[in-house]
Amino acid sequence: MRRQGFTLVEMLLVIVFLGLISAIAYPRLKAPAAGLSVRAALQQTNEMLVVARTSAVQSGAETRFIRSGNVVRTVMDSSGTWITLAARDLYTLHGVTVAISGTAPKDTIRFDARGIAIGLTASETIKFINLTAVDSVCVTRVGKVTRGGCPS
Question: Model pTM greater than 0.70?
Answer without folding.
Answer: yes
